[in-house]
């Protein structure tokens, strides 16, 4: 299970966001270059359609592979009350031929993306990860060296935190609290609920850049 | 199901790798090593379902530099004996080629000792072509997974042969 919120930020303000995150998280950023392949079940495979993602971390000296399955988000009156998306999620590291394995099983490539940016992994009562990345599409199959931004000038910010059915309310509270610190620069909300850029972003970014984050926003 | 999709594949866990899970697709010479959580993913996908579960259980012995595991193969919810498996590991060397001679000598000695006991049945060893699975000369748990998948295929084939003779 995981808790997720997303937002967008103009590329020109990413450096300021990085300064802010550095101060808030207290850890070093990690570079991010993830080739993400979305696979969907082909016809006649299984009783119900299924979907999974294969992630290839290209930032490592030896690319590492992860299989990821995301389930439907939590629903109901309780879920609508909270500003964070809670959904089942399972990940597994796998050896490099995992993509070929799922192709042979009958899965087809639906689309692929390349996410390039950075991430902060830190503890704030709970484990939280903030990723800031440009989402890029490939013009040719698997051509990660020839990827182009889907939205030039804009980057995606994701805040995620692993959770269980026993502690998700605590995780939701921690994520919500953390996101409040980012409010002058960007607004984070449930995936699928678009809020656009915040009007204070430019001023907040300028303030952060002028004194390297010493100013309290 | 489309003819090019495999009807089945094998998933297994090995005692020496408690946090790992292995898939083997013999028809396509694929072996995948993953975390145990991949089983949850496969359950959620519902594209393939577990049909038969076999357990290999027995004892482990140390004979000098050799480690032996001998055990019975039974379905998970039954005591019907499907076969007996013996796993021989030569601990000092991880190279398949460099250990080949000593492994063959050990098997010859073992087969000779067995032949003097007049026991029913006989051990069959079919070494997979590991390079077809993309595996190197350096022995790993993925090699073990491929070998057990081959053993399972042999057990299934022999059970089907016996069933055909009876019918």
From TrEMBL, chain A:
Highest taxon in the source lineage: Eukaryota
One Pfam family hit: Med18
Localisation per UniProt entry: Nucleus
InterPro entries in alphabetical order: Mediator_Med18 (IPR019095)
Key word Transcription regulation present: yes
Keywords: Activator, Nucleus, Transcription, Transcription regulation
GO molecular function list: transcription coregulator activity
Entry GO terms, CC: core mediator complex; mediator complex
Biological process per Gene Ontology, one example term: termination of RNA polymerase II transcription
Protein role: Component of the Mediator complex, a coactivator involved in the regulated transcription of nearly all RNA polymerase II-dependent genes. Mediator functions as a bridge to convey information from gene-specific regulatory proteins to the basal RNA polymerase II transcription machinery. Mediator is recruited to promoters by direct interactions with regulatory proteins and serves as a scaffold for the assembly of a functional preinitiation complex with RNA polymerase II and the general transcription factors.
Family note: Belongs to the Mediator complex subunit 18 family.
Oligomer and partners: Component of the Mediator complex.
Protein known as: Mediator of RNA polymerase II transcription subunit 18
Source organism (scientific name): Rhodamnia argentea
Organism classification: Eukaryota, Viridiplantae, Streptophyta, Embryophyta, Tracheophyta
From TrEMBL, chain B:
One MF term in the entry's GO annotations: transcription coactivator activity
Record flagged with keyword Transcription regulation: yes
Record localization: Nucleus
Keywords per UniProt: Activator, Nucleus, Transcription, Transcription regulation
GO terms (BP aspect): regulation of transcription by RNA polymerase II
Cellular-component GO terms for this entry: mediator complex
InterPro entries listed in its UniProt record: Mediator_Med20 (IPR013921)
Record carries keyword Transcription regulation: yes
Protein family membership: Belongs to the Mediator complex subunit 20 family.
Function: Component of the Mediator complex, a coactivator involved in the regulated transcription of nearly all RNA polymerase II-dependent genes. Mediator functions as a bridge to convey information from gene-specific regulatory proteins to the basal RNA polymerase II transcription machinery. Mediator is recruited to promoters by direct interactions with regulatory proteins and serves as a scaffold for the assembly of a functional preinitiation complex with RNA polymerase II and the general transcription factors.
Subunit structure: Component of the Mediator complex.
Protein name: Mediator of RNA polymerase II transcription subunit 20
């Amino acid at each position: 299970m995981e808790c997720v919120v997303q937002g967008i930020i103009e590329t020109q303000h990413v450096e300021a966001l990085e300064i802010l995150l550095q101060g808030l998280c207290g850890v070093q950023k990690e570079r991010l270059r993830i080739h993400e392949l979305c696979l969907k079940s082909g016809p006649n495979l299984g009783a119900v359609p299924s979907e999974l993602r294969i992630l290839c971390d290209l930032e490592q000296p030896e690319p590492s592979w992860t299989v990821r399955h995301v389930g439907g988000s939590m629903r109901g009156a309780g879920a609508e009350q909270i500003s964070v998306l809670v959904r089942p999620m399972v990940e597994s590291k796998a050896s490099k031929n995992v993509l070929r394995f799922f192709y042979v099983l009958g899965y087809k490539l639906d689309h692929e993306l390349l996410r390039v940016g950075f991430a902060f992994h830190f503890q704030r009562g709970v484990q939280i990860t903030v990723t800031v990345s440009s989402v890029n599409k490939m013009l040719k199959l698997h051509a990660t060296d020839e990827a182009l931004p889907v939205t030039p000038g804009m980057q995606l910010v994701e805040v995620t935190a692993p959770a269980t059915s026993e502690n998700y309310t605590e995780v939701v509270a921690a994520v919500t609290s953390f996101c409040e610190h980012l409010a002058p620069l960007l607004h984070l909300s449930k995936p699928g609920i678009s809020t656009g850029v915040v009007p204070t972003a430019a001023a907040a970014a300028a303030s952060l850049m002028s004194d390297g984050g010493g100013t309290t926003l | 199901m489309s003819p090019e999709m495999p009807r089945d594949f094998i998933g297994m866990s090995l005692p020496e790798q408690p946090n790992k899970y292995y898939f083997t697709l013999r028809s396509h010479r694929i072996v995948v090593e993953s975390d145990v959580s991949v089983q949850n993913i496969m359950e959620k996908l519902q594209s393939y379902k577990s049909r038969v579960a076999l357990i290999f259980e027995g004892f482990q012995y140390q004979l000098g530099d050799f480690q032996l595991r001998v055990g019975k193969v039974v379905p998970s919810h039954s005591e019907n004996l499907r076969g007996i498996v013996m796993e021989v590991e030569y601990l000092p060397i991880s190279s398949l080629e460099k250990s080949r001679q000593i492994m063959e000598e050990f098997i010859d000695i073992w087969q000779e000792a067995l032949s003097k006991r007049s026991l029913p049945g006989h051990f069959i060893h079919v070494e997979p072509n590991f390079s077809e699975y993309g595996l190197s000369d350096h022995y790993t748990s993925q090699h073990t997974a491929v070998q057990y998948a081959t053993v399972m295929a042999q057990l299934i084939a022999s059970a089907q042969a016996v069933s055909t003779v009876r019918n």
